[in-house]
Design a protein that fits this description.
Number of strands: 13
Largest sheet: 5 strands, mixed
Oligomer: single chain
Shape: globular
Helix content: 40-55%
Number of helices: 16
Distance between the termini: 38 Å
Low-confidence stretches: none
Radius of gyration: 21 Å
Order of helices and strands: HHEHHEEHHHEHHEEHHHHEEEHHEEEHE
Number of domains: 1
């Protein structure tokens, strides 16, 4: 297996080149979890993998509680399927919360304060109430709990990881919070060994070909835990060695097709980039700084052609049109130039807007 074949298989397994899913929740469940720091980009990450769907339809899946936005792994926002949110949070977040002890000291937040905050939120959100971030902060201020200097954000972050809160449906342009147990009651319970195996099954089934180190990065698990999970499902995977590295993937993968050689507009923080510790198969290291300018952790939307990241892009929303501005690393080939309008058109259809390119 060559590096080029790795990227083509990833495009298919990640549902980008050829989807087997029919609903937003199927896409999210298939991938296990999908990065969602950039809300609009995360909606498109789902839509990209679900032809003919729209942004409105993805948000309806959030409103009907089929997918949930919260902080299930690495202290980072993700979308997860409703059926997975409780066991993922229970299993993955304790280490992240424990690792933030110094930050809590800096913010002068102790366990007693978090208990007070939880009581406030349970009172104001009980009965299915959804409140914006500012309304959540206002409820804390009324209880004489300070929210300045990032204290408020850290309180929301901590209580979401402790399965008290989650994001609700968007109100206009405002994100809301609600009580997790009311929004999505727990329906499944996985013990440690089963959780490790399920994480590994989801990851390598959707992100493969991938290495153990990639799985460690994605999940935030200890190396020993990730290896245990991989070993639990390895009999259902195929291993290939490329340049001395062991890659794991689902068995019986179809050969790369014309679809996997196409051109795609990926959102910022897409799993195709963020789902791996080693991104060199899809991204020439010489272009890495163009994806994350200044190395500040803010990943730009990318143009992927034939499995390779060949540039970045940005959108400008106008009254009735979305304008897409590409920034290719080098001049697009004739084939790429011909395919690019169709990729833009697909994005416009997702937004329900006409498109233009600059």
């Amino acid at each position: 297996m060559t590096p080029k074949e790795i990227t083509h298989h990833r495009l298919r397994n990640q549902q980008i080149a050829l989807t087997t899913c029919h609903t937003p929740e199927e896409v999210v469940a298939k991938l296990g979890a999908m990065q969602a720091q950039d809300y609009g980009g995360a909606l498109w990450a789902i839509g990209l993998r679900l032809p003919n769907t729209t942004e409105v339809e993805v948000e309806k899946a959030i409103a009907r509680r089929a997918i949930v936005r919260t902080w299930p792994m690495r202290g980072t926002l993700h979308f997860v399927a409703a059926a997975d949110v409780h066991w993922m949070l229970k299993f993955l977040t304790p280490r992240i919360v424990a690792g933030a002890a110094r930050r809590r000291q800096q913010l002068e937040l102790d366990d007693a304060t978090f208990v007070r905050c939880e009581k406030v939120f349970v009172r104001v959100l009980h009965g299915g109430i959804q409140l914006t971030r500012e309304e959540m902060f206002a409820s804390l201020k009324r209880a004489k709990i300070a929210v300045d200097n990032q204290r408020g954000y850290h309180i929301l972050w901590r209580l979401a990881q402790e399965r008290v809160l989650c994001f609700g449906a968007r109100q206009g342009k405002q994100q809301t919070f609600t009580l997790l147990d009311e929004w999505v009651p727990a329906v499944s319970k996985l013990e440690r060994e089963a959780a490790l195996a399920e994480l590994a099954r989801r990851y390598f089934g959707s992100h493969g070909p991938a290495t153990l180190q990639d799985f460690v990065w994605w999940s935030g698990l200890k190396v020993s835990e990730a290896r245990e999970g991989l070993e639990a499902v390895s009999s259902r995977l195929v291993k290939e060695t490329v340049d001395g590295k062991a890659y794991w993937m689902p068995p019986d993968m179809p050969a790369p097709s014309r679809a996997s050689a196409g051109i795609y507009l990926l959102p910022a923080f897409d799993e195709y980039m963020l789902g791996y510790q080693d991104r060199s198969a899809a991204l020439d290291p010489s272009h890495a700084q163009k994806i994350v300018p200044g190395g500040n952790g803010m990943f730009l939307p990318t143009i992927v052609s034939n499995g390779q990241v060949v540039g970045t892009w940005k959108r400008t929303l106008k009254k009735k049109t979305v304008v897409v501005t590409p920034s290719p690393f080098t001049s697009l080939t004739k084939a790429e130039a011909r395919a690019f309008p169709a990729a833009i058109e697909r994005y416009g259809q997702f937004l329900g807007q006409a498109t233009a390119a600059i």
